[in-house]
Amino acid sequence: MSLDTLITHNTLLPATPDAQPDACALVLMGGGARTAYQVGVLKAIAAMIVAQLPGKPSPASPPPAFPFQWLFGTSAGALNACYLASQAVHGLDALPRLATFWSALRSERVYRLEAPGWVRANRIVAGLTLARQVRRHRALLDTLPLVDTLHRAIDLDALERALAQRIIHVLGVTASSYTTGEHWTFCQTRPSHPVQPWHRPGRRAEFQPITIEHLMASSAIPFLFPAVPLWVDGHKEHFGDSGE
Predict the structure, then answer these.
(1) Is 31 part of any domain?
(2) Rg (CA), the chain
């Protein structure tokens, strides 16, 4: 997914004539470690915004406004984008809240490998155990812990409120269809947004409510995490990490 693609298809155009002409877009790439670095940068941006405020804000004063109106992400970057969108109703506090979320994240809240420690001592047994894991979960790792983590962390109702209140305009999540090989950008806007789905060689865009399934599809690393079925064009296709 590129910013040029989003601009070309008018995804970043203001939804209404009275929308802010200087609104900002945030496009977040994937990659676990890189995504953690993104959190640090965003936390620093929040601190710089606060430092530029006139006077010293009191603890009782409301936080500054959320600084981004268009959020797009792929893979782990999509998780960050969606989390921020769901926290946008809290203004600038959304950025340090994302850092708090990452600080509490542990591997057991992301995946589960059903193999006792003693299995590693025998290559044959380890191979058989991993093969059983693949048959059961369609991948090496069980990602149900991540599903639970995202359901607990991301308030999709708050995301809809942020869109309805025009705090944000668009949330976009990209994923690759293993069925067709096309890259999809799933976008959620408020109902009055005029942008229509678009299609160009190898790339599609669909406007529909973002769900945890979209996030799991975008972050489904091939072979490690299972592909996720999503409904597109009236049928199911299996999606995974777009690698973009």
Answers:
(1) yes
(2) 19
DSSP state of 181: -
Q: How many domains, the chain?
A: 1
The model's pTM: 0.84
Domain of 231 in residue numbering reads as 23-52+63-240
Q: Are 225 and 137 in contact (CB under 8 A)?
A: no
Here the CATH number for the domain that contains residue 176 is 3.40.1090.10
Residue-level pLDDT, tens digit, the chain, 244 residues:
454 555 455 555 544 544 555 679 999 998 877 888 899 999 999 999 988 888 776 677 788 999 999 999 999 999 999 999 999 999 999 999 999 999 999 989 998 776 555 445 555 444 555 556 555 656 778 889 999 999 999 999 999 999 999 999 999 999 999 999 999 999 999 877 766 777 888 889 888 999 999 999 999 988 788 889 999 988 999 999 876 6
Helix or strand (DSSP H, E) at 240: strand 235-240
The answer to whether residue 57 sits within a structural domain is no
Q: What is the dihedral of CA 31, 35, 36, 37, to 10 degrees?
A: 110
Q: Within 10 Å of residue 19's Cβ, how many Cβ atoms? A: 12
Q: How far, in Å, CA of 78 to CA of 172, rounded?
A: 8
DSSP state, 105?
A: -
Cα–Cα distance, 74 to 219 (Å, whole number): 7
- C-alpha span between 34 and 90 (Å, rounded): 25
Helix (H, G, I), strand (E, B) or coil at 20: coil
Taking CA 201 as the corner, what is the angle to CA 199 and CA 206, rounded to the nearest 5 degrees? 25
- 14 falls within a domain: no
User: Could you tell me if residue 217 is inside a domain?
Assistant: yes
